[in-house]
Design a protein that fits this description.
By secondary structure, the chain is of the alpha+beta class. It contains five helices and four strands; from the N terminus they run ββαββαααα.
């Protein structure tokens, strides 16, 4: 159970490691190291509202529900912080690019730009570095020369 920002979240994890079942499905490409099938339930309490979510995973982790629960929580913490940075730096959620391959192409370009900005070790925020790179050609050249 965790409590953050006035929200209480209860997580429950079940992991199944049936050697016979795993041997049956390991032949699929990329699943050679499959060890467990996982079910994670999340129950979230915000004020008087309760929501339930169930997610299923396959994993190469051993059959240790506590370890798996911590690994999935750590994964989503990294994933959420990465997307938050993209949204705050590039206003990604406000993008109106919707047709064809354009959304995926722009996502790749944003990731490249974010990685370039992160390599610069000045004290400015990522947003400030991005703004400065747009105005100052010498700063832009400095960033690009680090690639």
């Amino acid at each position: 159970m965790s409590k953050t920002s006035g929200r209480v979240e209860i997580r429950r994890c079940w992991a199944i490691a049936d050697p016979i079942a795993m041997a049956h499905i390991r032949h699929y490409e990329g699943w050679a190291d499959l060890q467990t099938i996982i079910r994670i339930e999340r129950e979230t309490h915000v004020n008087d509202t309760v929501s339930h979510d169930i997610a299923y995973y396959i994993s190469s982790l051993s059959n240790d529900a506590q370890c798996i629960l911590e690994a999935t929580r750590h994964h989503w913490a990294i994933e959420n912080s990465f997307h938050w940075v993209l949204d705050m730096t590039f206003r990604e959620d406000e993008s109106r690019i919707r047709q064809g391959d354009s959304p995926q192409n722009m996502a790749v370009l944003r990731h490249i730009a974010l990685n370039i900005l992160k390599q610069d070790n000045t004290k400015s925020s990522l947003r400030q570095k991005r703004f400065r790179a747009g105005l100052d050609d010498s700063f832009m050249l400095k960033l690009l020369s680090q690639i």
